[in-house]
Design goal:
about 375 residues; alpha+beta; single chain; 4-stranded mixed sheet
């Protein structure tokens, strides 16, 4: 397999590294010492730099002021964001924009995407259902009323909802169809209840009580929500990979300096073996990530495979959810008590890794989903 990136994708990585170079993971209070959210808003100065470097418009078509790149390019940028725990809704914003671009009406795309690319309009997505375990599209009902749609239901753990301008909300029509509604945060009948993530960031429980949505703001294409769901999952795997690589680098630097019995602990066989195992985890996370991102782009272009793209996404989620947990646990172990020091950033990475693991869900569930796909699509 050839995982060589194009010049445009490599340029996106270089731009992202330049933007994230000065980002400090400990720029906000520690989640371990903060009873509520660590901040009321995301990192707006960083958001402005991302917009100024054209990274918010990376995946938008030229007609909307973008570079016209793909899911792989987005995941490359998210990987860099994960390394520094960037506090911005980059994944949700870009994934929702891609869904609108691919499946929304020209009028909806023209109304939202140019401003989204400039960063003056912020998008997020409600993807966790009522409890985080049930399908998100079943948590909200959508029914026609004249020329509009009426939404009722609840979505939990919506990231950056208090700071977003528009929220992409999946819903079901009662006839087995999933639709995707773009709802302004200030819509009548929409209420946000405060929630806090494991990493200390603000989330919201989204309650919709008779929220009226114009037909132009509702995407009826059945593949729109599935596309958005897979983009969010794959992007979360990219964040986990970047976080894991940042943690392994931190561990390598620490064990190379920390001495016991007159030698750096990195030279001890037990330490080296544990670090090597985590390196293997990261390489498996990487190869399955790029396979999933490539399949998402290939599926959009009409290219098929022995399994639907959801199978590749499931494999990436299996490795990411298990791998990122193992990486941070080993890092804590090799750092000793220093890893729990709230003046040292490792505990922040641990909290973010746990949040990403919760977002991805348990590997056993993805293995079951993959088994169902294999049963329904015999490879022979």
């Amino acid at each position: 397999m050839d995982f060589t990136f194009t010049e445009e994708q490599q340029a996106a990585v270089e731009a992202a590294r330049a933007v994230f170079a000065d980002v400090a993971p400990d720029g906000v209070p520690s989640p371990a010492l903060t009873p509520g959210a660590v901040a009321d808003d995301f990192d707006r100065p960083l958001w402005a730099r991302l917009a100024g470097s054209d990274l918010l418009s990376l995946v938008l078509a030229e007609e909307h002021g973008g570079a016209g790149l793909d899911a792989i390019a987005l995941c490359l940028v998210l990987r860099e964001a994960g390394r520094v725990l960037a506090r911005v809704p980059l994944l949700e914003h870009c994934a929702a924009a891609m869904a609108v671009q691919a499946h929304g009406s020209p009028e909806l795309a023209a109304a939202l995407l140019p401003a989204a690319g400039r960063g003056t309009l912020v998008l997020t997505a409600a993807a966790h259902g009522r409890s985080g375990h049930d399908p998100a599209e079943l948590a909200v009902t959508a029914r026609r009323e004249g020329a509009d749609w009426i939404l009722d239901g609840t979505q939990t753990a919506v990231p950056w909802a208090q700071s977003a301008d528009w929220i992409a909300v999946p819903a079901h029509t009662g006839e087995g169809d999933a639709v995707l509604a773009l709802v302004p945060r200030t819509a009548g009948g929409l209420a946000l209840a405060e929630q806090v993530s494991t990493s200390g960031e603000r989330l919201a429980e989204l309650a919709l009580d008779g929220v009226r949505v114009d037909t132009a703001h509702l995407i009826e294409a059945p593949e729109a929500w599935e596309r958005l769901r897979q983009l969010l999952a794959t992007g979360t795997c990219a964040l986990a990979l970047g976080l894991g690589e940042g943690v392994l680098t931190m561990t390598s630097q620490y064990t190379g300096k920390r001495e016991q019995f007159g030698f750096p602990v990195a030279t001890f066989q037990a330490v080296a073996v544990q670090a090597a195992d985590r390196y293997i985890d990261l390489r498996a996370m990487e190869v399955t990530l790029w396979q999933a991102a490539w399949r998402l782009d290939a599926a959009t272009g009409g290219a098929g495979g022995p399994l639907p793209s959801s199978g590749d996404v499931a494999v990436a989620k299996i490795w990411a959810s298990e791998g990122v947990r193992r990486v941070v646990q080993t890092a804590q172990h090799l750092h000793g008590g220093f890893g729990a020091d709230t003046d040292y950033p490792l505990h922040r990475y641990h909290a973010w890794a746990k949040q990403l693991e919760l977002q991805l869900g348990p590997a056993a569930a993805h293995e079951e989903a993959l088994g169902d796909l294999l049963a329904a699509h015999p490879l022979g």
